[in-house]
Design brief:
alpha+beta, 7% strand, 47% helix, 52 helices
Length: 1489
């Protein structure tokens, strides 16, 4: 029942409760209390009290309620109390009995904590994941891994395991579930119903709260419950609180409010008036005192507030402001990284990684990077920087970088004309070196006649070309080029050239390159060269544009990444909010629902949550895909993350997965005089939990420090942890926060990677500290987590690093998970041996002959000398066997043997240079100092005479003579190489050997005929009459000789060798002679070579054909036309002209054939000129081809013999000659010449008749009755001669066309009257169609024995016309096939077939394809003259598609490309009338066509 706060509710009740009421009595009824009254005053007083707010709820203790409100509150409380779980009531009363507490709130908190950490035997619970099944606790067990408590009290109840039994189903089945998997229903246990139960069943006894006797008896005693029956162990002990004394103040009654009469009212008014007066006086006094006190309090409060704000602002500044990392005192421990241990010296790892990353990043810009398959491997990089090899990976690296620089220079020269000027504005550095750099370019033009970037570049010439390039770097250019560089190269000027910086700081490298190859330098010097070349590449406009594009792309990708992460976080938060809303809605809806419907609602909730999770997973996968796309954009080149407190730099390399940490010495500053002491790690961890926003932190600190006056004074050193723990103090006990204890000892400055103040023992500022890891790496996700936790967000450097890591963490983890730890940690001997074996296996195929087969350990200069000897001997052999010259020595074999054995003997005096300088003159020192200062770059381009007169007599001076000593030449302890090499050969030994090789090369050069040299050392077209041009070429060659004989290294000799080799017209060598008519090199025994130009012509390709080698010198028609030479055979023919006149046959006059012949002669001349132009165009390509093996030839009179010559059988004269003979006006010499010409024509007619119009071989068997052309049976697709008249396919297809003008007979009849010819046609045997595939040698022999002298002019005209107009029907139409191959290789679908298939890429390819073929091989074979017929080329093309069809499956990308390319080839061959048989891929389409 509600209880009244005041007594007197039942006082002054005149009516007795047992009074009897009769019918018709007037009464007053109160329905709320169900009472009736006779007296209205009593009724009124009753109603007034009921409606007064003097009532209190007995269950909840709420006061200031009306009677009705108190009763409603009691009913609601009673209903909630009934929901309190029945199985928890006994534990609650047991805890109340043992707690001995006096405060109700404290008791509620204590009991609630006790119940939350325990489940009791007999209690009904649910299991996570099985909410629809209810279990009963039947037992409690302790985790076996945790020992039992010594006092028997189980405080850590989270480790307990509960044995459960399902209420439904098999009662014998029991499961063990840990504490964290069990749950109670919220309605059965909460703080509200727990408080009601305690208030209803607890009473105060002697100031302490005890269970009511009836309740304790009902829930504990009667059922025999104690703590051991519902839980394991003993009841926890609680500290008893102080006894609270009961309040004995007497409560006032309600009588004064109810009882009222006139006397009492009067007294009350008088007393009230007096009291009011005294009260007013007292209040005025109190008001004044209060006013003074308030003013004092306001002043104190303002002062305290100002102090508090100042304190808060100072602490906010100290917690949030960023300062230098080494000056902070809140540093955490950083994780330890894995040290990189490889075969490379530790100080070179950074340069090696940067080089590999550079080549990987700019692979699309580097020239020749294909040699590394787009990127250099770690094994190739290790071999390059550890092995001493000539043609190893180091040479390829330098060739790629230097070749790229040259290509970029050429692109710049195409954009803007660049000329080098040797003017000097100041006589100090670097201006003096810039002026000298221009002289290096003049040196190259003077002695090599080429620019530096045009010199031949390979592994052998690399050292000298690199030296010249570096000496010429930084040269002053003309004003136009300088303005262009400022505009397009971001303000670049010559004095910023990295090569100029290398020349000034490391001049000893350039001096060393003068005498030794680059491969013999110290590896740190080699890295200086590589860094210089990479820096030069980065200065060009193409590279700058690429870098700017990638920086824009990276900035955009980072912005997208931030937006992507922000959206993902918002999405996750939205999912949690939606999930919470679903749970709240479910709890509200399930309140008064029946159990049957409750299960359906639970299922509906689970489905909604599952659908929400499914959508979230789908969106998360989409988010991960977008992250992967950003990964390729962010990590397409090196990413610099930042630096930590001790200046360690963090990189993410694209070429090498992992986060790489460099502890270099280039960012060192001075040691701190008084390094700050670090705080304890517990304080730092609590500081990390504070708000990061300044506004939130300020509010937090104001709230924390604002109540200092109400609390006990604390020590100034008390931490934030202790302040916060005061809020958790309950009844003399403290509930400790979960904070890790401090380590036993505080970390040292070394462990924190902080400055120690002593530079001799400082991990930060001492570069020689043994504990420094110059290069290390991390790659595991947990290592990245430790790094992020250890970084200080308020450090200047670490805050930037932390931000980069936080933003790109997911991408970095994806990138570094494939880190190759097997090559980065070679700590044991077994791992090092394994790495060496793998490196040898990976690189030996490409670099197995890096030192040209010379045993390992041989000095590199000796390797180059031996290889130079081999090249010289091969060079001399090619010149001698190719009839390009002969060595001017007495005993050639002795000269060769001496060169091989190393005892070189020139067998005479060696002369070189302008004026034929002798070697003795040089030995006697008859040289004066040379100067390039007067030599302008355009001098040798304007007038070669100036070169002769002004510079020819100047002495040689090396462009590196003016190098000054650099500061880094003196050895230092920090720069010593660990891999010091053996002592280099002395400078006196190397030049002597080099001088011998240079002299041998000079002798070979002087043996070459000058007419076989190309520009600039020879004429474009040899003409001995042009004396000025001849002298200019000789002067250039003399300058080449001067620099050759001044060579001091084998690389310089190789450079001169390659320059000379490239300037020889190798196409004029007899070893590479091709027929000027058919462009083929087959049948060498039937090829005549010109005694002037070595140009070859097949005897059967001449007009007329030759059957034997002519006597005396024989010259081609180009030499006869251009040089005015005459053949000896023609002179002999003139002397025999008179004797031949008697053997003439008189024939009818026919003007049209004569005109045709004249027209043919003109055409022949035109064809000769066209052939000469084609030869000039192909000259460069021919010179670059590999040297063909020399062909054997029979020589007569010093020239190769090609066959036998048949005698003439008869001659014909025209009517004009007959008239001249009758009239006697013709002189004997003229008659002889005319007879010779007619004789040649007659011989051509007799020899070349019966030529097949399909294959253009002689020996035809059938003749068309309409066009009178001859064909082989095989070419006409016939097995035997036809019994009726034969009509060719062309005549059948063009019956309605007009006959050709040149198809006329001597008698003027039509083609159908071909039977008018009286002379029979002799047949020549042709066995079968397969005879076409025989060599031209065999076909020529067949034609020699089957000639027919009886032929008409008509037939000859037909043959000549066919040879000119039907070039597509030649046995090998090289021009058409070249065009076909070019079209095929340029097609967009030709990419899989351009190069051979590598086994490393497709391991099983050669197991399936036994005859591989590719387009590059076909083109190479066509260039080398390996094909005889068109069908052979087309057969190899067909083989490419056949292999594609055999290996690939339909639908494959390469299969589709092959199908598309084959259709293109079919169309091209159809247009060119070439027979092409498609593979099975397009067989159906070919059949449809």
């Amino acid at each position: 029942m509600p209880i009244c706060k005041r007594d007197g509710f039942d006082l002054n009740q005149k009516e007795d409760k047992n009074v009897t009421f009769h019918d018709n009595d007037q009464v007053f009824c109160c329905y709320l209390t169900k009472r009736i009254f006779r007296d209205y005053d009593n009724y009124f007083r009753h109603v007034m009290v009921i409606n007064s707010t003097v009532w209190q709820c007995e269950a909840t203790g709420k006061d200031s309620l009306t009677f009705e409100e108190a009763r409603k509150s009691e009913r609601a409380a009673r209903k909630k109390m009934e929901q309190f779980k029945h199985s928890l009531r006994a534990p609650v009363l047991l805890v109340v009995e043992h707690a001995c507490q006096s405060a109700v709130n404290t008791l509620n908190l204590l009991v609630a904590k006790f119940l939350r950490k325990r489940y009791f035997i007999g209690e009904e619970v649910t299991v996570v994941g099985k909410k629809n099944t209810t279990y009963k606790v039947v037992g409690i067990n302790m985790d076996q891994t945790i020992p039992e408590p010594s006092n028997g009290i189980y405080e850590d109840t989270d480790t307990l395991v509960y044995r459960l039994q399902a209420l439904k189903g098999d009662a014998t089945t029991e499961i063990d579930v840990p504490f964290n998997q069990l749950r109670r229903t919220r309605l059965e246990f909460n703080m509200e119903n727990l408080g009601m139960f305690i208030k209803s069943n607890v009473t105060r006894v002697d100031g302490l709260l005890r269970p009511k006797a009836d309740a304790y008896k009902q829930y504990v005693t009667d059922i025999g419950v104690n703590f051991s029956t519902i839980f394991i162990g003993k009841m926890p002990r609680y500290s008893p609180s102080k006894i609270k004394k009961p309040d004995v103040k007497k409560q006032s009654t309600l009588n004064k409010f109810i009882v009222t009469d006139e006397q009492t009212v009067a007294k009350s008014k008088a007393k009230a008036k007096a009291d009011a007066k005294s009260l007013a006086e007292e209040m005025e006094r109190v008001r004044l005192e209060k006013q003074v006190r308030l003013a004092q309090m306001e002043r104190e409060k303002a002062e305290k507030k100002a102090q508090l704000l100042e304190r808060v602002n100072i602490e906010c500044d100290s917690l949030l402001s960023k300062t230098d990392d080494l000056e902070r005192s809140d540093q955490k421990l950083l994780p330890r990284y894995h040290q990189i241990v490889t075969f490379l010296p530790e100080r070179m790892l950074g340069d090696a990684f940067m080089m590999r990353e550079f080549m990987h990043t700019y692979a699309g810009l580097l020239s020749g990077i294909e040699v590394f398959r787009q990127n250099i491997s770690f094994y190739e990089m290790t071999r390059a920087l550890t092995a001493r090899e000539i043609a190893g990976p180091l040479s390829d690296i330098l060739l790629v970088l230097l070749g790229t620089v040259f290509d970029l220079q050429k692109e710049e020269e195409e954009e803007c004309s660049v000329t080098y000027v040797d003017r000097i504005s100041q006589h100090s550095e670097p201006f003096r070196s810039m002026s000298q750099a221009a002289q290096c370019h003049y040196y190259s033009k003077r002695h090599f006649s080429f620019k530096v970037n045009e010199l031949p570049l390979d592994a052998l010439t690399l050292s000298e070309v690199l030296r010249l390039h570096l000496l010429g770097s930084g040269a002053v250019v003309n004003e136009k080029a300088e303005r262009w560089r400022v505009m397009y190269r971001n303000g670049y000027s010559s004095k910023e050239d990295p090569g100029l910086e290398l020349r000034l700081q490391h001049a000893h490298i350039l001096r060393a390159l003068k005498n030794q190859p680059v491969y013999q330098l110290k590896f740190r010097d080699i890295m200086h060269l590589i860094r210089c070349l990479m820096s030069q590449i980065l200065t060009y406009s193409g590279t700058i544009n690429l870098i700017e594009e990638r920086l824009e792309q990276t900035a955009k990708a980072k912005q997208e990444l931030r937006s992507l992460i922000s959206n993902e976080n918002k999405r996750i938060a939205a999912v949690e909010v939606n999930k919470k809303k679903l749970n709240q809605t479910h709890q509200q809806a399930i309140g008064g629902v029946e159990p049957a419907k409750r299960e359906a609602m639970v299922d509906k909730l689970n489905k909604s949550i599952a659908e929400l999770h499914s959508q979230s997973e789908h969106q998360h996968r989409k988010h991960e895909q977008q992250l992967l796309q950003l990964h390729s954009q962010l990590f397409n080149f090196l990413v610099y993350l930042g630096m930590d407190r001790c200046y360690r730099k963090y990189y993410v390399l694209e070429s090498m997965p992992g986060i790489f940490v460099e502890h270099s010495t280039d960012s060192l500053d001075t040691c701190l005089e008084q390094p700050p002491l670090n705080k304890s790690q517990s304080e730092i961890r609590h500081q990390a939990q504070l708000p990061k926003n300044r506004k939130d932190l300020r509010i937090y600190l104001l709230k924390l420090y604002g109540d200092d006056d109400k609390r006990t004074r604390r020590s100034n050193k008390q931490s934030l942890e202790n302040k916060e723990n005061q809020e958790h103090r309950l009844n003399g006990t403290v509930e400790h926060m979960e904070v890790d204890a401090d380590p036993p000892t505080a970390p040292t400055q070394f462990e924190l990677m902080m400055c120690s103040g002593d530079k001799r023992n400082c991990i930060v500022h001492d570069p020689k500290n043994s504990q420094r890891q110059r290069w290390s790496y991390i790659y595991k996700p947990e290592e990245i987590d430790d790094l992020i936790r250890g970084l200080n967000p308020n450090g200047l450097r670490e805050s930037e690093l932390l931000q980069e890591l936080s933003v790109m963490r997911s991408l970095i983890e994806q990138h570094v998970k494939t880190c190759p730890t097997d090559v980065l940690q070679l700590e044991g001997e077994a791992m090092r041996k394994k790495f060496l074996a793998t490196m040898h296996a990976e690189t030996n195929r490409k670099y197995g002959e890096a030192n040209f087969g010379v045993p390992e350990g041989t000095d590199l200069n000796e390797v180059m000398r031996l290889h130079l000897v081999d090249r010289l001997l091969q060079f001399e052999t090619d010149i001698y066997t190719g009839d390009l010259g002969r060595l001017k020595v007495k005993d050639m074999e002795k000269w060769r043997n001496d060169l091989l054995t190393g005892h070189y003997d020139p067998q005479g005096k060696v002369q070189w240079g302008p004026g034929g300088k002798l070697e003795d003159e040089v030995a006697n020192g008859s040289t004066d100092n040379e100067s390039h200062e007067d030599h302008a770059e355009g001098a040798d381009e304007e007038k070669d005479g100036a070169l002769l007169g002004k510079y020819a007599k100047k002495a040689y001076r090396d462009p590196g003579h003016s190098l000054v000593a650099s500061a880094d030449e003196e050895p230092s302890a920090d720069s010593e190489d660990e891999d010091e090499e053996e002592a280099l050969p002395s400078e006196t030994e190397i030049p002597s050997e080099v001088h011998n090789m240079a002299s041998a090369l000079l002798q070979v050069e002087q043996a070459i005929g000058k007419r076989f040299l190309k520009e600039p050392y020879g004429m474009k077209k040899w003409d001995p009459k042009q004396e000025a041009l001849k002298l200019a070429c000789e002067s250039r060659l003399h300058q080449w000789e001067v620099s050759l004989m001044a060579s001091t290294s084998f690389a310089q000799v190789f450079l001169h060798f390659n320059v000379l080799h490239d300037c020889i017209q190798w196409r004029r060598s007899t070893n590479k002679s091709l027929c000027k008519v058919c462009r083929r090199g087959s049948d060498p025994e039937k090829m005549l070579l010109c005694d002037e130009c070595n140009g070859g012509t097949h005897m059967f390709c001449m007009k007329p054909k030759l059957r034997s080698v002519p006597e005396g010198n024989w010259y081609c028609k180009e030499c006869i036309k251009d040089l005015g030479l005459k053949n000896a055979q023609n002179e002999k023919d003139k002397n025999q002209a008179a004797a031949k006149k008697k053997r003439k046959f008189i024939v009818e006059e026919d003007d049209e054939p004569e005109e045709d012949e004249e027209e043919e002669d003109d055409n022949d001349n035109d064809e000769g000129e066209e052939e000469q132009e084609e030869e000039d165009e192909e000259e460069t390509a021919d010179d670059n081809k590999s040297e063909a093996s020399s062909r054997t030839s029979v020589k007569l009179n010093g020239r190769p013999a090609r066959g036998l010559r048949t005698s003439l059988r008869g001659k014909r004269l025209t009517s004009k000659e007959i008239d001249e003979e009758i009239n006697g006006d013709a002189q004997s010499s003229e008659a002889g010449d005319e007879a010779s010409l007619v004789d040649n024509e007659e011989e051509e007619d007799s020899e070349e008749e019966k030529v097949c119009q399909s294959c253009f071989y002689d020996g035809s068997e059938i003749r068309c009755v309409r066009c009178s052309l001859y064909y082989h049976l095989e070419c006409a697709h016939l097995k035997r001669p036809p019994r009726s008249e034969f009509v060719c396919k062309k005549c059948k297809n063009s019956e309605t066309q007009r006959p050709r003008r040149r198809h006329s007979h001597m008698n003027g009849d039509n083609d159908d009257d071909g039977g008018d010819q009286d002379e029979p046609q002799a047949k020549r045997s042709r066995s079968s169609r397969t005879s076409m595939r025989l060599s031209l040698d065999k076909s020529a022999r067949q034609s020699n024995g089957n000639n027919n002298n009886n032929s008409s002019t008509n037939n000859n005209n037909h043959r000549r016309s066919g040879r000119r107009t039907n070039e597509s029907n030649l046995p090998l139409n090289s021009a058409a096939l070249y065009d076909l191959l070019e079209q095929i290789m340029k097609h967009k679908a030709a990419w899989p077939f351009l190069r051979p298939v590598l086994t490393s890429e497709v391991p099983d390819y050669h197991q399936i394809i036994k005859t591989p073929m590719d387009l590059a091989k076909i083109k190479s074979k066509l260039n080398m003259g390996a094909y005889q017929l068109n069908e052979e080329v087309l057969s190899d093309i067909q083989l490419v598609f056949k292999n594609c069809d055999m290996y690939n499956v339909e639908g494959n990308e390469i299969y589709d490309a092959g199908c598309q390319l084959e259709r293109f080839v079919m169309d091209c061959c159809k247009e060119m009338q070439l027979p092409f048989k498609p593979s099975d891929m397009n067989e159906a389409e070919a059949a449809a066509c």
